[in-house]
Write a structure and sequence with these properties.
- By secondary structure, the chain is mainly alpha-helical.
- The chain is built from 13 helices and five strands.
- It has two domains: about 15-90, DNA polymerase, domain 1; about 115-290, hpI Integrase, Chain A (Orthogonal Bundle).
- The protein is globular, with a radius of gyration of 24 Å.
- A three-stranded antiparallel beta sheet has the order 1-2-3, with helices on one face. Strands 4-5 form a two-stranded antiparallel sheet.
- The longest helix has 20 residues, at about 70-90.
- The relative contact order is 0.09.
- Helices cover about 45% and strands about 5% of the residues.
């Protein structure tokens, strides 16, 4: 704090940003917050006074930079900036609210659709490289978010117990678990590797890539979400109603687990949600599951041969 100017003369924007980011211990979260703060420092000037951030100017700037982004991106960037401003106010470096003219956008309805069990089986049975097959199996069986799984490093894996520790949204550390499909394929993907990211690119990493995202054995970088999503679309384009999204694997697993009678605590553990309300949209019974339940519980239906 000794390098900061006193609140009376104003704290430099670059210093305020650096101090705030230093309070965030989770590397992934810190990188996300840095996206908006680095841009703020660049556009408003490193020597800008935090206390003089003008609401009209900030609103215009933010809308210009992220107004055309997806709703989720817009809201994430705004939440990051709002957290920083709240911290600066707590320190006495900022008195007003430079974000007063900005509002989070309403989230669009979730149009992703749970896939049938047969369609999931079709996807997991596609001819694809080991990396893709392991990723798809792990995403479905664990119902984890793609971003969480792609950030896994080999030391995070507990192959013997078929589980791993991931960083959830918000920075919480949590355990995910997979099943036989992933367990059978994983050794082939790792090929004896004990370090580096689990899922790697096909080519060697560029010099600009952070060392934490590079496998020291092969020199290849961590597979990005964007590339993983593109590959999934490419492989599922030929299927009926394809292509599909990686998120649909997660959605489908939670729906199927709900149909199989999984309790709410189990569903929350599978999904990583901390509120039942957030979980509700994923735990809805599919049309396929509903029709099957009706048929199996129809008192007027003819008795099956195995019933007495």
């Amino acid at each position: 704090m000794g390098t900061l100017q006193t609140p009376a003369s104003g704290v430099r924007l670059a210093d305020a940003s650096k101090v705030f980011l230093g309070t965030i211990s989770v590397a992934n979260t810190r990188r996300g917050y840095a996206v908006v703060l680095d841009r703020l420092v660049r556009d408003f000037g490193a020597d800008g006074n935090v206390a003089l951030l003008d609401p009209d100017r900030v609103a215009g700037w933010f809308t210009f930079v992220w107004g055309g982004a997806a709703t989720t991106t817009f809201n994430v960037r705004l939440a990051s900036l709002r957290s920083a401003c709240g911290y600066w106010r707590d320190q006495g470096w900022l008195t007003g609210d430079p974000l007063v003219r900005l509002r989070a956008r309403p989230a669009p309805p979730d149009t992703s659709k749970a896939l049938s069990r047969q369609r999931v089986a079709d996807i997991l049975g596609l001819v694809a490289p080991p990396r893709e097959r392991v990723l798809w199996h792990m995403l479905y069986e664990s119902s984890a978010r793609a971003e969480e799984v792609l950030m896994l490093d080999v030391p995070d894996l507990d192959a013997a117990n078929r589980c791993a520790v991931v960083t959830r949204k918000g920075g919480a550390r949590d355990v995910i678990a997979w099943q036989t499909g992933t367990a059978r394929l994983l050794p082939r993907l790792l090929a004896g590797r004990r370090t580096g990211p689990v899922f790697l690119t096909d080519r060697r990493a560029k010099p600009s890539v952070a060392l934490v995202d590079v496998d020291p054995t092969t020199g290849r970088a961590r597979l990005s979400y964007r590339r993983a999503a593109e590959l999934f679309e490419t492989h599922t384009t030929g299927l009926d109603d394809g292509p599909y999204t990686l998120h649909q694997l997660r959605h489908s697993r939670l729906t199927h687990a709900a149909e199989d009678g999984a309790s709410t605590p189990i569903l929350m553990k599978l999904s990583g949600h901390t509120s039942v309300r957030s979980l509700a949209k994923y735990a809805r019974i599919s049309d396929e599951g509903f029709v099957k339940w009706q048929a199996e519980n129809d008192p007027a239906a003819r008795r099956r041969p195995d019933r007495r």
